């Protein structure tokens, strides 16, 4: 038997192994069809019987992932020389289509051919509009849509989480713009160098939810495949700046490498630089970051957070190239008294506490004290802690039914403790100035 005949028989055996499967999965069809198209043209084969029943089922031959091609050595069947080579290519195909190679794929549904199309009327003015599309339009495997409905379904959890965050209307609109731009692949150029940056600056005071927003963005773009790994790393100055020149670049590069494929979130990024004088350590750090923003523009998303003016006077001042690399700018609105009240009540509920009479808790209570809540969400969390402490003193030795039920008196006394501690912090700062 000739070598070519042996290869041909191995190829036929390979096809027969699929023919005998009672429930071939989507990956089986995709790999096989891709191999058939890559290794020979069906129309040029004289004896089409060698394809067996597969040739009769033309829907199989019409499917192709085009994920990899054959070796260019003028041999139609060279790919099938060994069973190991077959396994190797199947393994690579699993990785290419984003499937865990250690996962059991035996229950993957058979390929469903596209037999119908559906035009979805789209008008996006809010996150609720996107969520409504997901809830009302059934995702069918046999239907082609005018929008990427499958991707929207994949990120529903993150969209709902973002939509349920109190306030932030301007920021939510900015996220919609970014999402719809990325989900249509409009950021991808003809070549790697012409693609757009994903790096984002989030402006706003402490306690406005910047970290939570960054995490949600990272999860969304990971599920969409825009970012390859579900990596989110939050860092501050101490994680990046070294103790001596040269060490800073090493520390910064290490952090960046750990975030490739995901999100690097730099909170209070203005602390990386000094607004009044040059700092060699800061410059070394920011120069390293600036270089990475371009080198890994397709594999990395860097999100910085802080006050806009302070970032302009420090972070962006030290290295002028940073400005053009952070093309996305989100602004977090300051919370008004009504929103502060909603945040406070939400935190009470999340901790399985209740109000003795929720109608006692008025917006006016928060409005009268808003000047002392400049850290917004953080202050609401701290306020609740002091209120619970005051509550503990009030109900000590009393009926268990009173526990974890907040009264207005608890709130007033808890606020007094909150204010006392806030003033103590201010006094320590002033005292420190005189030292």
Structure report:
- By secondary structure, the protein is of the alpha/beta class.
- It has 3 domains: 94 residues, no CATH class; 205 residues, 3-Layer(aba) Sandwich (Rossmann fold), CATH 3.40.50; 98 residues.
- It is 50% helix and 7% strand.
- The strands form 3 sheets. Strands 4-5-6-3-7 form a 5-stranded parallel beta sheet, sandwiched between helices.
- Helix 8 packs antiparallel against helix 10 and helix 12 packs parallel to helix 13.
- It is globular and about 85 Å long.
Task: Furnish the topology, listing elements before pairings.
Layout: H1 3-19, H2 26-39, H3 53-56, H4 58-61, H5 83-96, E1 116-118, H6 127-136, E2 143-145, H7 149-154, H8 156-163, H9 169-183, E3 200-203, H10 210-223, E4 232-235, H11 237-240, H12 247-258, E5 263-266, H13 280-295, E6 301-306, H14 308-313, H15 315-318, H16 321-325, E7 328-331, H17 337-350, E8 354-355, H18 363-367, H19 377-394, E9 405-406, H20 408-434
Parallel strand pairs: 1-2, 3-6, 3-7, 4-5, 5-6, 8-9
Helix pairs in contact: 6-8, 8-10, 12-13, 17-19, 19-20
